[in-house]
């Protein structure tokens, strides 16, 4: 059986940030002109954007791995690396984005609505940007951060004003084809429709969309036939139309019992379908027996409170009345609904709490540090470069990580793991806070640059130092 692609698993990977460059400016007769290594470029984001022209997720079914480009590394001469290009993935209106556990991350409704599914990694700072009064010629640069890679699930829930529901071959697709300009596949065997069809109808001054779903059969809400899969497409439609076949050749069916079956399925599915406004269409009245049956059954259906239309998708009889009646209900439901956001909505992943970090003891001599900043700093560190490692230690110290470790009972030589439990970087802890460490001199100073030191250096308070550390990242926050 053909499976309709309205649910795909997608593996997205944002671009990695380019590494910063460590370089020293060279000029004739001026061998040490100062650090001039540029910053790495930002990795491209992976962005899902609603595009009205896209109606299926089929493309992603065929190629489910999507990656944005990496940022380029910085270069000497203060040249920054180029940013990676964002990868924009068009998705149909009504695409729901979930994580692998089924948590909804975003519900993309409305042209242009977008969601950053993977954020590009920040570029690493070059040594020019890392230089400061205290650290005149850093012999290292920061690494670019890896882009976010993750698995997401896209699920399509058609957004239409009107949904046609009914048994297979009742004529739903035929009706869409004659009410709108859409040309869905129509055939006289059941389950012809595998993909919801969407058409645009103009009735007077009202323009509305109409969708059908593959035929429903008893048990659809439990997954029989193609059923359940498709009822979710109906969820978002504000009006339901029962399309009943008055000319079916199946002896055990008639329009009234068909209606009961479909109603039962809608109730069983729930999710609000049970109380959508609905009306009844008796189709195929161009067939003489069909017309007789329609006329016979009409009073009963009206007695149940339904507005009933006798129509034919073949002879076009009754279509105008139906189309205007639908326009009226659509207009009413629109008027009743709160005004829709007309602005372009951009949904981003939730911002991480950037404030702090936690230290937790894990067993005899292992301490785990979690926190957005410490983890990011570790990712940015080139562990083959001692100066870079020293810079990391300074940053962690300034944030108060060492202090917290001491408080938590860590002793020199204990293991400290920074990062996610399954992918942490583990250090042997050597506290640098001890008074002796301060006297060894600052890291990142090339003594060849040494200017005469003022006799008295003012000890800066901790907060000022923290502020300075943050300063370096201004302009690098992708959310700012
Ligand atoms: N005589 C007559 N035949 C019709 C009418 N409407 C549809 N049909 C025929 O009924 C058959 C099924 O029509 P479809 O429009 O494909 O039915 P459907 O409800 O979309 O069917 P599924 O996609 O299988 O659920 C086709 O052979 C149509 O030509 C009508 O008003 N009169
Ligand atoms: Mg159909």
Q: Which consecutive residue ranges, at least 5 long each, have pLDDT under 50?
A: 433-462, 469-480
> With helices defined by DSSP (H or I, 4 residues minimum), what is the helix count?
12
Counting DSSP E segments of at least 2 residues, the number of strands comes to 19
Biggest sheet, open or closed, and with what strands and sense?
Answer: 6 strands, mixed
Plain-language structure description:
The protein is elongated and about 100 Å long. The chain has helices at 58-62, 127-130, 172-179, 227-234, 255-269, 288-303, 319-336, 372-379, 386-399, 401-408, 435-439, 462-471, and strands spanning 7-13, 46-50, 65-67, 87-91, 95-99, 104-108, 114-118, 149-156, 162-165, 197-203, 206-212, 239-245, 278-283, 308-310, 346-347, 358-361, 366-370, 415-418, 425-428. The chain has 480 residues and is of the alpha/beta class. The protein has 3 domains: 1-156, Distorted Sandwich (Spo0b-associated Gtp-binding Protein, Chain: A); 162-336, P-loop containing nucleotide triphosphate hydrolases (Rossmann fold), CATH 3.40.50; 358-440, GMP Synthetase, Chain A, domain 3 (2-Layer Sandwich), CATH 3.30.300. The longest helix is centred in the last third of the chain and has 18 residues, at 319-336. One of its GO terms (cellular component) is cytoplasm. It is found in: Cytoplasm. Its cofactor is Mg(2+).
How would you briefly describe this protein structure?
The protein is α/β, with parallel strands linked by helices and about 475 residues long. The chain contains 12 helices and 19 strands.
